[in-house]
Amino acid sequence: MTAPDAKRKADMATDTEPMTDAKPMDMTTAREPVTDAKPVAIGVKFCGGCNPRYDRGALLRKIRDAQPDWSIDIAEPGTVYKHLLVICGCTSACADISDLTAERICMITAPEDAAAIIRSECGETAE
Question: What segment(s) does the record annotate as region Disordered (predicted)?
Fold first, then answer.
């Protein structure tokens, strides 16, 4: 144990004064779900579908099922999204997103990409 740790432990052992500004924790409110929270705004952009290697619509349904608190809509220019899911049917990732705005862009070129996105809520920051 280092000297500062030993002093801290000794101070805690000798401190017998009650904390006057401490408030008891209300466990009933601590467990209640937040009902005023807004759903996370998610925009979706599909590629043109010229070479799809998986069912992109089915993948979006899986994402919706896995993230029921996300509000997922087809992306529209002029709307700023928390995340933009760009669902491409192949690794060319040719979907044009130049007119869309989001805090994070999530490129999906395979079903495996979506699994990672669901876990991390998208990793790439939009620039």
Answer: 1-26
* CA 101/CA 80 separation, integer angstroms: 5
How many distinct structural domains can be found in the chain? Answer: 1
Residue 8 within a domain: no
Q: At what angle do helices 56-66 and 111-120 cross, to 10 degrees?
A: 20
Sheet holding 40-46, edge to edge: 70-74, 40-46, 80-87, 101-108, 124-125
Q: Which residues pair with 48 in a beta bridge?
A: none
pLDDT in tens, 5-39: 444 444 444 444 444 444 444 434 444 444 556 77
Closest residue by Cα to residue 66 from 31, 50, 42, 82: 42
The radius of gyration of the chain's CA atoms, rounded to the nearest angstrom, is: 24
Is 112 among the domain residues?
A: yes
Predicted TM-score (pTM) of the model is: 0.64
